[in-house]
Amino acid sequence: MNLKQAFIENDSIRLGLTAESWEEAVKLSVEPLIESGAVKEEYYDAIIDSTKQYGPYYILMPGMAMPHARPEAGVQRDAFSLITLTKPVRFSDGKDVQVLLALAATSSQIHTSVAIPQIIALFELENSIERLVNCQTKEEVLAMVEESKDSPYLEGLDLDS
């Protein structure tokens, strides 16, 4: 599962969106995956339910969240989407998020060994949140993903398959 390829194939980058709540932000992040057929509608409900039960466990760093749920909650195929918000939304733990990268993984193995390293590589770029929020086009986001390919986190990963 290649991050850049998944963004292109699913047409799943949406920039400069507005959300009034964290639930709405999560919905906006999952919508491209529903539209592309990567996940079923119930995937969104599963994310909301697990967030209410366990808290926003998918806030990975200040300003960034990776909403996701279990593969059996409606995942049809591996995919990613990325949205940016014009202003941050506050989650139940008090953390503000402005970039959401939704993940649909068909197995926990893909989630851990393939998806997470690519996400770390992208977000370890200097000022990644600020840069993503300032992106005006999908191409600018894809260029950042390309830039992140030199990360040591991606050594040994076959991202072409």
How would you characterize the overall build of this protein?
By secondary structure, the chain is of the alpha/beta class. It has one domain (3-151): 3-Layer(aba) Sandwich (Mannitol-specific EII, Chain A). It has six helices and five strands. It has helices spanning 3-9, 22-35, 42-54, 108-123, 128-134, 138-147; strands at residues 13-17, 59-61, 63-65, 79-90, 96-104. It has a five-stranded mixed beta sheet. Helix 2 (22-35) packs antiparallel against helix 3 (42-54). The model has no long low-confidence stretch (mean pLDDT 94).
Overall average pLDDT: 94
Counting helices, strands and paired strands, the structural category is alpha/beta
Order of helices and strands: HEHHEEEEHHH
Number of strands: 5
Task: Output the CATH homologous superfamily.
Answer: Mannitol-specific EII, Chain A
User: In CATH terms, what is the fold-level topology?
Assistant: Mannitol-specific EII, Chain A
Rg, nearest Å = 14 Å
Largest sheet: 5 strands, mixed
Span from first to last CA? 7 Å
SS strand fraction? 15-25%
Q: Quick one: CATH class?
A: Alpha Beta
Query: What helical percentage do the residues reach?
Result: 40-55%
The overall number of domains is 1
Strand order of the largest sheet: 1-4-5-3-2
Shape descriptor reads: globular
Name of the CATH architecture = 3-Layer(aba) Sandwich
Task: Supply the number of helical segments.
Answer: 6
Domain PTS EIIA type-2: 6-148
InterPro entries: Ascorbate-PTS_EIIA_comp, PTrfase/Anion_transptr, PTS_EIIA_type-2_dom
Subcellular location: Cytoplasm
Keywords: Cytoplasm, Kinase, Phosphoprotein, Phosphotransferase system, Transferase, Transport
